[in-house]
Amino acid sequence: MRCRLTTLLITLLLLGPTSAIAQNDGDGTAASSVAGVRVDGRLLFRVRGISAYPARVRAEAVSDRILAVARDRDLPANAVAYSAVEDYYLITAGDVNILRLYTFDAELEGVPLPVLAEVITLRITDVVRTYREDRAPGALQRSSIYTAGLTILLLVLLW
Predict the structure, then answer these.
(1) Within 10 Å of residue 158's Cβ, how many Cβ atoms?
(2) Which of 36, 47, 84, 118 is least enclosed, having the fewest CB within 10 Å?
(3) Which helix (H) or strand (E) holds 125?
(4) In angstroms, rounded to a whole number, what is the distance separating the alpha carbons of residues 45 and 21?
(5) pLDDT digits (tens, 9 = 90+) for 78-95
(6) Residue 37's beta-bridge partner residues?
(7) Backbone CA torsion sign across 116, 118, 122, 127
């Protein structure tokens, strides 16, 4: 798992920032943009931006908040929830406001806003669990042993 993650991160670094897609309105300015929310190199979902709050900045802020929740082991992974608030849905985990979903986000995915809120809540819950499992002491030990074994095998094959 760690090996695949490292390879993915190196590939993403070599390819450069390609997660943002801009839609031109004809005069060369970006009317709206789309960026992917990623955690550990894994694309969770996409968000739209506006000129005052570009999609890339919004996606990075959401990623940072998801990571903060994942690192807080006092907060259960299933604490991630959504609720309807006026004209948007708010996804939270404990006291942390992770994301506000608007109609234009749902239009991007072609689904109703309540459905998008539920799906994204499940995705965030899943990534929080996975993040914690991948960094548990037992998982780190297994990964270290696995890496050492592969290194020894590679050295034997090269010899």
Answers:
(1) 6
(2) 84
(3) helix 113-134
(4) 14
(5) 999 999 999 999 999 999
(6) 45
(7) positive
